[in-house]
Records
---
Amino acid sequence: MKIMIRYGDGSTAGNGHRVRMQRLAKVLGQRGAEVNIQSANFVEILDSLKRTPYDVLVMDVPENNNRELEAFRPHITRLAVIVGVGHTIDTETSWIADTVIYQNMREWIELIEAPSSMVLYGAEYLMVDPYSVSWRQSKPGTSIMTYFGAGFPANYAAGVTEELRRRMSPEIEVVDAWDEQWVKHAARAGLVVASMGMAVNEAVAVGTDVVTISVDDEHAEDAEELCELASVLHVGTYASVSPNALAKYAAKRYLNVERRPDEIPIDGMGVYRVARALLS
């Protein structure tokens, strides 16, 4: 089976789009699929599809353009659309797609308007790191990991990190760098401070407490399901919460972090479930 994967990149998309699609590509390849994965570009996608027909096109971008999706349709057998945290699809998109895959942990079926042949949603389909379970720690670590995705001004993220370092004692390391080992580091941290999105799902999966803030109201609405978990504290949108205020919330939460192994709803197998559905 030939599968094309295209993910959002640049100023409008955070690392979550790229990372989860890389995981999906790896699992699909392990199961015998021929996978072509790149950042999304309409002209390049359409040109590639016209030259080499694909069985499946997977799109993971912040905003889907229905006219572009319709242009892809004649050249593929199946179209799968990923819906991330804070991202919605309209009714027309849901009609164009064959499969809609939600990545926001919301369980409310009435939110899903897609009449698609297949809709995947809930914690079991979150494409977090498959090694999440093995990295869980029995006790909280001492460091604080921070990550702010697309939509957050660089000076806001820097302000939070600077204020955390000022508030915390010197032996508590505040790490603000993203790398391919971020999830593993988050598992060993005492607290994660992150924008609402894939980073929060990753932290929940490894059992680390999270203080999170949303870029806008749509992200905040998606946070409601996660905020039912004792490990997650959502403090609002960044327009209403200053960097100093967020750091204050985080510093206070750090003093009361704990591990709750029996309350983790994400088992790390979501990427395998999605791959199985796409190959069926």
---
Amino acid sequence: MTPSPAAEQHEAELRQAAATLDRDVIAVANAGTGKTYLLVEHYFALLAAGYEAGEIVAFTFTEKAASELKSRILQRFETHPEFSGLDAEQCRAWKNKILSASIGTIHEFCLRVAEAARSAAEPVEALEQAWQERLLKRHLRSRLEASDPDVLRLLEAYDIRELSRILTSYLASSRDSETFSGSWPAAEAEEAAEVAGGRDAVGGAGEAEEAALLQAVSRLGDPLVSAIQAEKQARGWISFADMESRALALLGDPNPTLRPWLGRIAHVLVDEFQDTSPIQ
């Protein structure tokens, strides 16, 4: 079927917008017209231009949309012509970079801004650590009782104590200002055996199995990060509005701790936000 002239023009405009890297681009359109497609193509245009995945922040509004966005970026990597000639080792390295990139919700980004502004010397409260450990154990227990396939797959590689250590490392990475990522950083993924106590399950796996293990950690860890954030909100520790206000104030007047973190961000891609919120 031959595309209509209007459809061809629409595709040409999308390609032009995706390839525009020297200025801001705003796409306002109805649902289903290709806005997320445009963001994904723009993401890869930045990678092709030499930017690192760690220099690009991409966020949307809901957890579901954020999960879909990350999934679509990973899927596009498999078919993008810029990466078609990579060998297996290079593909694995790029996938690890994308998995560890800052792709999530706007509130996750706000929290990362706040965490990055906190002094590295500031200790994590012992009470919060103990509370987080209880949530982690509860999360693992509930996923085991539900025969979650990600838990079962990971337990073929690690015992329950090692898996708990890996998830603890994952949680630490989600608030570490040096990684500015809600996903398991590639470097930590490669050193999973050390985190878990010496077993080389990830490093010794084939490429497909290694990718499956890394994604299983992310799928298991992401809901845990969200649960911790929701519990904090329920306890009144910080609300979504507080996150937004705090991030806005910090971005307007970044402190010395925050400035180096912000300096590593070259591009911010926004898929969706709540336009009824003046702060957003």
---
Amino acid sequence: MNTMLPDQRGVGTLITTVVGNYPKIGMGTKTPNLRTAISRGDRGEMTPEQIQGVRAEVTAEVISDQIQAGIDLVTDGLIRWDDGQTYLARAISGFSFTGLIRYFDTNTYFRQPVVDGLLKWSAPITVADYEFAAANSSKPVKAVLTGPYTLARLSKDQKYHDQKKLVLDLAEVLNQEAKALQKAGATVIQFDEPAILKHKDEFPLFQEAMGYVLDGDRQIEIDAPTTVVMNVTETADGDTTLVHLINYDVQLTETQKAFGIDEVPPVTSTVCPLKSRAAA
């Protein structure tokens, strides 16, 4: 994946990066197999601390793998994530979990989050992961979060019974998580939003939610054949750039048709601060 970020002259700079997730197996002979470690933990043969140690080893290995491949902007591989939903939802007050369901129309399954209370952010969720990755990388590290629309769409709502209120509350939660990442030093934050292409008629809600996440002006841009970028933005002090990715596995022509875009516009950037609406 390539991403356009503005340099100090305002000119777009092409950098190489990755979507985020890596397989949860060892990348080479030096690294233990994480799936094996988790299975051993389920049988009581490894402690949670030992499994966390394996996760750390695998994370360091995938970061090294990206650097050796020449990637400019690396991720931690989301090695600690079971999937794109449950890792965040476990740490957000108001969620519980039900059984496994299919992830869109793939052969992948995830444990569906259930909204049974008002959703609230209480403490950083991914900051420790980011700090570990940054400490183990000689290249800049990109933080990755699932966006509010997708997280809401893939959850079972037993509390709000109001899709808009649910999505916007999750946007506020993720705004606080993004601010915590920014405070920890994250210079790039990616929000994954694959669900919007399954519910294109709800794009106005999606757009409003991203306004809550970013609290800034919004625009849609096409960045690469398989990626739609929304709000490639920089904070007023230039410290944090937020790259919003709607989908990373859809042909450009399908994306264009989905949003009525007839031609690819140039990549540009807007400037807006990352802040909480409550503090505004």
